[in-house]
Amino acid sequence: AKKRILEIVDGLDSQVTIECVIPQKYHRTVMGAKGYKVQEITRDCEVGIKFPDRPTADNNEGGPAPPQENGDVVVAVNGDADSESSEGSPQAPKKQDIIIITGKEENCDAARDALLALVPITEEVAVPYDFHRFIIG
């Protein structure tokens, strides 16, 4: 029995919690229908994934958030922020953008990579007017 308890303690000691920063507007896409995609990642990577609560009108911290337009918000991605940036800077991730992943370190890293792979990517490409008819149909 003592050996089993030590195994459990060692397992708990290897548990880590990491933060994954994904803008909240993508959380529904990342979760999938009824949370299917997140459940699959949780099962495959053997981790716990906790999404932040959605902000409500009376739950907003620091007052109502300004409306966001494409390209207006700059977000630091998963530890890529400069070491000199402070918590109150515009580069600091917002509380509602932080997803908490708990489990063994290598499993958490795999889960974070899987979550980031689900974030849609949009790229703007300039196409001369003469070629529009070939793209449209």
In short:
The chain has 137 residues and is an alpha+beta fold.
Walk me through the topology:
Layout: H1 2-13, E1 15-21, H2 27-31, H3 36-45, E2 48-50, E3 98-104, H4 105-117, H5 132-136
Antiparallel strand pairs: 1-3, 2-3
Sheet with most strands: strand arrangement = 1-3-2
The H-and-E topology, N to C, reads as: HEHHEEHH
Termini separation comes to 70 Å
State the major sheet: 3 strands, antiparallel
Overall helicity: 25-40%
Specify the overall morphology: elongated
Total number of helical segments? 5
Radius of gyration: 20 Å
Q: Give the integer mean of the pLDDT values.
A: 76
**Assembly state here?**
single chain
Question: How much beta, percentage-wise?
Answer: 5-15%
Give the strand tally: 3
Q: Catalogue the unreliable spans.
A: 66-88
Structural class: alpha+beta
In words, what does this structure look like?
With 137 residues, this protein is of the alpha+beta class. Helix content is 33%, strand content 12%. The protein contains 5 helices and 3 strands, in the order H-E-H-H-E-E-H-H. The protein has helices spanning 2-13, 27-31, 36-45, 105-117, 132-136, and strands at 15-21, 48-50, 98-104. Strands 1-3-2 form a 3-stranded antiparallel beta sheet.
